[in-house]
Amino acid sequence: MRTITASGKAAAILLGALALSGCADKWDRPALGIDAPGRWKDDSESRPVWPAADWWRGFGSAELTRLIEEAERSNQDIAQAKARIEQADAQVRINGASLIPLISTSGDSSLQRSAGSSRLIGGLQAQGSASYEIDFWGKNRANVISAKASALSSRFGAEVIALSTVTSVADTYFALMGAQERLAIARGNVKSAQTIFDAIQARVEVGTASALDRAQQRSVLDQQKATIPSIEQEIRTNETALALLLGRPPVRVDIKGGRLATLKTPKVAPGIPSQVLARRPDVREAEANLTATDADVTAARAAFLPSFNLTAQGGFESVALRTLFSSQSTFYSLGAGLTQPILNPQLPGNLDLAKGQYRENLFAYRQTTIQSFVDVENALISVRKTTEQERLQQAAVKSAREAYDIAQAQLREGAVDITTVLTTQQTLFSAQDTLVNVRLSRFQAIVSMFSALGGGWAASGKPPGAGPVIAAATAGAPAR
């Protein structure tokens, strides 16, 4: 009866182990499912012009270059991203420790006296031990692959932050320049409106203009004066935004700025969409996260299977120091162990969790790739249309200036009515302000194009256009 009971227990244990191991079914990795088109919808360029590492120099502004270089050194978000890289590298070393034997040494001495005896008995011992888990199913190696992919992801994440910081500096600097230019125009408009007002005042005094004419022009003058405070506020707000990006208090930042019209227009053009995927750090980051969770699935599956451990221990033991290291004092032991999970409810949950995280990262990867295509298409149309709009707006300003000059001359001669003068000056003032905003939009569209193409960053050690992270990280990975 005892034999049958023992056999039944053994069979139950075996069945439980087989059932638990059966949960580690084959991992059918879902396809990436990336639909990379062969061309851009709004691209007429035949040859790609990829961003240089220091693409911002193409704008020809020494001050912008200085601000960006300082932001690279001092921006706090970039500093935090670098600290996360250090943590990820440390985790790689922690996970990698499971692939090498654990070795330790110890030594101790003791004195003891038996009850009823005055004799002291001493003991000395020096020993070393080693243990090693044979990575038969690739669990530990999968954990290392996951950690390496996460470390690579942290590098691409740092590139994302760095690129975002650089583009933010450029956008904010251009916005500040635009506000400075609008402020100069507004002050010029006030001066022009004041000149017209004085001319109308003189006509009122001689009876060739009415009080209504004067009141209408005063309204124009007051409106132009009222635009100045908000523009000055915009300038200060952009200065404080730059201070934050530079990691300095606003009082420590002094921006000279200038006119947008003095900037150069750098050349940039995309290649085919699939090349953009290899260059954008956010896509590479999502790809690395996907690789990490794929390795986590491998580790979770391997946890169902038996683990094999080897242990060794040896040393010297003696009651006298002079004989401690003699051959008669040596001892050693060797051992091997096998551990098979029988009933562990956490293991199926861990596997399902890893699979769910992989699928989540897969959808995030797909979303990031689609977003990259959208960003490039938006930048292409924005650059093209703002360039066209700037050209047309320049013509509008020129025409408005001619009409205003004619109206001014005729006003001095008394050959034009006040309504015509009011209309021409309002048209000119509005056209000038619109031109600055359109020019700002064009430069910011160019910056968006550089950002959409991944900039020129390679902080991860993988230059733009390097091979896919998934293929690189899973090379030599355990068989599925």
Automatic annotation (TrEMBL):
> Is Coiled coil one of the keywords UniProt gives this record?
yes
**Position of the signal peptide:** none
Q: How does this protein sit in the membrane?
A: Lipid-anchor
Q: Which residues form a coiled coil?
A: 61-91
One GO molecular function term? efflux transmembrane transporter activity
Entry's localization field: Cell membrane
Question: InterPro entries given for it?
Answer: MdtP/NodT-like, OMP_efflux
Metal-binding among keywords: no
UniProt protein name: NodT family efflux transporter outer membrane factor (OMF) lipoprotein
* Organism, scientific name: Methylopila capsulata
